[in-house]
Structures are given as C-alpha cells and as structure tokens.
Amino acid sequence: MSPDTGRSLNRKSTRRATRRRAMTRRMRRFEGVLAQLPSVQWDWRAALQGVQAPELVLPTPWAWSKLLSSLLLIAALSGLVLIHWEDRWYLYNDQITLHPPARLNPAEILATAAVDGWNIFWIEPEQVRARLLDHRWIADAQVEIALPAAMHMRVVEREPVALWVTTAGAYWLAEDGTTLPVAPGEEIHQSGLPQIVDLLGEAASPFGDPTALTLEPQILQTALALVEALPELNGQIRYNRGIGLNFPLQTPAVWVYWGDGQAMEAKLENLAASRKLLQQGETTAQILDVRFATRPYIR
Q1: Thinking of the domain 162-298, which architecture would CATH place it in?
Q2: pLDDT by residue (tens digit) across 114-146?
Q3: Running DSSP on this structure, what letter comes out for residue 262?
Q4: ∠ at Cα 288 (284, 290), nearest 5°?
Q5: Which CATH architecture has domain 88-157?
C-alpha cells in the first residue's frame, strides 16, 4: 500500500468517526425533545367497539397521476437516503473557509462553531453564528453555507485596549478585563498599547469567569486613566497586591505608590503638589505614596 493510499484511508476513517459522533449528538438532542413530550396510551380494543367492518371495495384502475406521484415519492425517498449516506453532503473543518483572524486561534473558532461532521442540511447558519457570539473575544460573525458541503465564516474580534504582562505569559485585554493569551512569537512591543506589568498575576479578578482568566476591571480602567494623564509613563504601569498600581517618574526621580482606583482626582492633586515640592528642592524622597487621598506621604 502506497503512503498516499494509507493517508486517504486514514482520512476517510477519521471522517466516518466524526460523522458518527455528530449523528450521536443530534440523536441525543432528538431523544431529549421526545422525552419532554407527554405520553399517550391508546386502548385499541375500546376504540374498535361498535365499529362495523367496511364493505369490500375493489381498487380503481391506476391513473397516470397516481403512477407519477408514486415515482416522485420514490425519487424523493431515494434522494433523502443518498443525501444522508454519501460523504459529499457532510461538512468537515477542512472544508470551511475561515477568513484569517488577527489574534484568535482558528482551531478555537472552528471548535466553537461545532459543525465538524454535520450533514449540510442539518446546519442552520444563525445557530452557528449564535455559538460564535458566545465566545468572549468575538464581537460579530457572518456564516454562509453552500452546496454540496462548504461554509464561509468571517469573525470580527474584539479590539484589545491594553496588555497584561506576567511571568506566566502576556495577555491581550478587552475593556472589561477579558483576556486573550498572546500567541507565541506574536509581537507585543509594536502594538502601541498600554502595558500593565504584574509579574505574579495578582491583578486577576476573583469574581470573573471561573473558566477564564480576567483582570480586575477597576485596575484596568485606573491604569488606562493614569497612562493618559501621565504621558511620561510611556504607556507602562506596574501592579502588585501590597501597594496596588505603582510607577516611576523621572522629573524628579521618584517611585509613586498609587494604590487602587478610588479618589482619582484627589490623588492627582496630591501627586502634582508633592512633585512641585520635590522639584523646588524643599524636600527629597525616593517614594511618593498617594494611596490615601487625605494626604500624600514622602519617604
């Protein structure tokens, strides 16, 4: 047996297994619907009581219309059997045209669509689109099918607003703190996005989706506001659980403990006043702590 023949047989065997799994899932859904229907018991003996036997009626001669109707019925049944028997009416992932996404893994999108091994006549594009929209990083999707078995799929990804850098890896961040792992080899330094450097990943939200990593939304929004208010940060800010958000300033050289996102305006005023004192030489410091809105602390 040649290698090409062996690969062809393996591909056919894999597709048969995929079809069986898809059929099993569909039959389970059908059985679940049937199980919810009320059961009806029919007493045929009671139904036949008082019913007289019909008189014998001889069949009438066959008309051409009846013959044509029978042939059409046979053809329709034959076509239905062929559609559900022949492999060319079944859709597989390698027959799906997916317009290249920017950051999402194509295999993850195909797994979310969940149409591998389905008969093309079982697939409803709107249901596939609804499954895609359930993905945390898909903002919109378009799904089109074509006979005998083809699908065109285009997804619109959510745009990241920042990067979360940890020792475990880097993550794209949506505006609500939803994360998407940066793919290996994907360039992040040319993205121009603000970066939250949190080596231990301590800014993770304890109230987010338990199945997915989420950054605390308040931390993200505060970090974005600080990067905008202080251009000298060059788009980078740090976080750790002990002191919250923190960052270095160069004029004068001092490290700022910012804390959380509370009392933003008061903290900015305290920061500006303290920097003025340092610039005028009235005091010196290595750390400027504005975590408490009542007054800053210089160390």
Answers
A1: 3-Layer(aba) Sandwich (3.40)
A2: 999 888 888 999 999 999 999 999 999 999 999
A3: S
A4: 145
A5: Roll (3.10)
